[in-house]
Specification:
8-stranded parallel beta sheet, EC 1.1.1.307, oxidoreductase activity, oxidoreductase, two-stranded antiparallel sheet, TIM Barrel, D-xylose reductase [NAD(P)H], AKR, 10 strands, binds NADP nicotinamide-adenine-dinucleotide phosphate, alpha/beta
Length: 288
Amino acid sequence: MAHQAPTKLDINTSYTMNSGYKIPALGYGVYQTPAAECEEVVLHAFKTGYRHVDSARMYRNEQPCADAIRASGLRREDVFFTSKVPPKSMSYEAAKKAIESSFAQTGLDYIDLYLIHAPYGGKEGRCGAWRALAEAQRAGKIRSIGVSNYGVHHLDELEEYIRNSGVGGTLDVGQWEIHPWLPRNDIVEWARRRNVVVEAYCPIVRGERADEPVLQALSKKHRKTWAQVLIRWSLQKGYVPLPKSVTPTRIEQNADVFDFELDEDDMKSLDMPNSYEPCAWDPTTSHE
Ligand SMILES: NC(=O)c1ccc[n+]([C@@H]2O[C@H](COP(=O)([O-])OP(=O)(O)OC[C@H]3O[C@@H](n4cnc5c(N)ncnc54)[C@H](OP(=O)(O)O)[C@@H]3O)[C@@H](O)[C@H]2O)c1
């Protein structure tokens, strides 16, 4: 299966997507990061070693992320930037406008990854938004494309659409809330069979599980924090975790996860295949 974690993970580990481009295995999320402080914290993330920023039109901070990319002094090709089609823009025309607005606001020449944020808008809306992404990918403006919060029924629908419509587009990435209390094994299996990279949002469950005995035990055993244990779990599963923090020490802590390893028993202790406890919204179950 694709995207099992490599034996040796480090901060520069990346995966090759169906598009042929690479995606860094550790991302940095900016949901709820106020635009006014976004450039500064993204710059701190770059200084710490992150090379992958997960934004969205809905987060209203694409521009400061792009400003940080320019101010970082890093080469554009060494930084990976993601945005997303907002749920309100789920049609061909509206998604096309959303993509144009991302370029206008960021001033970037290309965007590494653009996702459909959530499977709303009905079949026509979803397929229309995909067509807009596929067109932008073909034009070379967006390098890789994918979806977020799609359930297996949405994924099947998309796969059939790509197969039968001729619009093209490579399904490169899927982004979902994934952590031990929401493992989403059915979706992960669907993605892995097709080499679709699995991004894990809310990888530290927004701090809501800090006191769980299993995390306390692993934290003590490895002398790492509960947050580091969760990020490491996600990386060892072969996912691309997207921890968010606006706190410099936490930004550093969340990337300091490459000097320890969870062993098989540790991983098993975090295995809760039947748990289904989202901490965020859950559009995967939508039947709109
Ligand atoms: N596609 C989607 O629908 C979707 C939905 C949700 C999220 N996402 C993406 O995934 C990213 C992460 O998800 P999230 O932000 O919802 O949740 P998260 O990363 O699991 O948790 C973020 C929260 O944890 C705190 N935190 C961060 N590091 C910590 C540490 N080491 N110790 C203790 N607390 C810590 C942060 O506080 P401070 O910031 O105050 O430090 C913040 O309140 C988002 O930023 C976004 O890019 C996507």
